[in-house]
Specification:
Length: 123
């Protein structure tokens, strides 16, 4: 019932910027918290940033002061603006969110993941 599509990513040199976006579409009542994860080859998936439906924001130590997460509720979209990128930021970035579905007058939650977008930062 719900699809999520990521866009953005690509190749950038150190110090450059990229913006990722992730948009949910389909039938849903609302969206709860939204997050960005990343996973580098051979490493575990890491939470980069999160934003609640009340715009409460948290960042990892690495992302703090360089990345900015935001959301546009009307479009069901979460963004990750990444500035001053470093080679250590190279990873596949995934959006993650909780959507709420209205089913038989019951509000049900659904956890969804984006397909992932590769960000490669050259030194």
């Amino acid at each position: 019932q719900v699809q999520v599509v990521e866009s953005g990513g690509g190749l950038v040199q150190s110090g450059g910027s990229l913006r990722l976006s992730c948009t949910a579409s389909g039938t849903f009542f609302s969206i709860g918290f939204m997050e960005w994860y990343r996973q580098a080859p051979g490493k575990e998936r890491e939470l980069v940033a999160s934003i609640t439906n009340r715009n409460e924001i948290k960042y990892s130590d690495s992302a703090k002061d360089r990345f900015a997460i935001s959301r546009l509720n009307a479009n069901g979209t979460v963004y990750l603006q990444m500035n001053n990128l470093k080679p250590g930021d190279t990873a596949v970035y995934y959006c993650h969110m909780i959507v709420y579905l209205g089913t038989n007058f019951e509000l049900k939650s659904l956890e969804v993941w984006g397909q992932g977008k590769l960000v490669t930062v050259l030194s």
